[in-house]
């Protein structure tokens, strides 16, 4: 039988798609006389290569399989890590690089002119005996598509969700096969490759929270869009990238940090957003035990804020990301609608101080009971999760329809929530951002966006310095010089 990526069966008038089994995938690779490489697996057994051995024909594919479990052996082969850790991206890349070099040195290209080499590696920590830490790992492949072509690379970070080490090992083996199969047979469609990583797996088994593609076959792949796919596909709840636009592991960037988070649409980022950030940041740094060197500011965009007519607008997402990165900010894309879920997420990585900067309308929404009907404890449970640690809300004022400035002193919540609000206000959980530039209170990003789309002038003054130039240069948010010219000539 000829193996395909998806076997199709006709049943009456219906077409039924069957995902190839793990054995089918490994057998297809083993029977491909050109694919040849090494497996190096540390920390969870040799679970991936085991599938290739069992399916038959492995001698066509496997040059070497190894597992340097002992730390001294591992250091002797791959070198020492500065931080002394072994389950890191740096370790994974050293493993991939070392194994590819060894293969190139030991296998004569003249003897194997049609071979495409690969190195698959993983470095993993499974669940501990106390079952307090469920485990995580780095998994990757460095490989060729053509013999005379440079290597491509796919690396990803996983977090186990299962509570049994043996099950985690099996999950890792399945993921490894999916990755290798996708790398060779779906490299021309990275989004589909990403979805195929969960073939024969459930999202309750593992989470993929970081992925990066590089190499000639992925030259046009923007890893930020791949991060967006992880959240969109439900593979993780949140992803992050740094000011350079590179995907970063949330656990690494958030670990033991004081965190100030700003949620918004940032479509586009305005003077209001930056004034809120700058003023709240200064107030946050004045808090007890907040060290500037250990403080991270996160601009968060929820998935619901990326949807346009029910679908995620990727171009619009990239426009927002471009601007925030140009301002030197870390960006997080999340699937959290409620604020307490954001705080819970941060709390899984840090016990340090946390702050949320938001506008008055956002705070009023937080005190709306309808958002917590799914919780058995309702709004009180949500607020317990939101404020159980010493979190503070830094509140940016707004103008109402009569031009009155609304802040924490005169905002109106639902009558049933009035006493609850007073409690948090009285206990210093809600603090007004001081020295606000009231001229900015008339700026709304949705109005700026309309002006840009219609080619009108004047929106430039509503944005931070440098941002209008970036929008015009890269034609972000539908900016069109021809439309501007037509508007001017009317």
UniProtKB/TrEMBL annotation:
One Gene Ontology molecular-function label: nucleotidyltransferase activity
Xref: SUPFAM superfamilies: Nucleotidylyl transferase
InterPro entries: Rossmann-like_a/b/a_fold (IPR014729)
Gene3D superfamilies cross-referenced by the UniProt entry: HUPs
UniProt keyword annotations, A-Z: Nucleotidyltransferase, Transferase
Designated name of the protein: Nicotinate-nucleotide adenylyltransferase
Organism: Flavobacterium rivuli WB 3.3-2 = DSM 21788
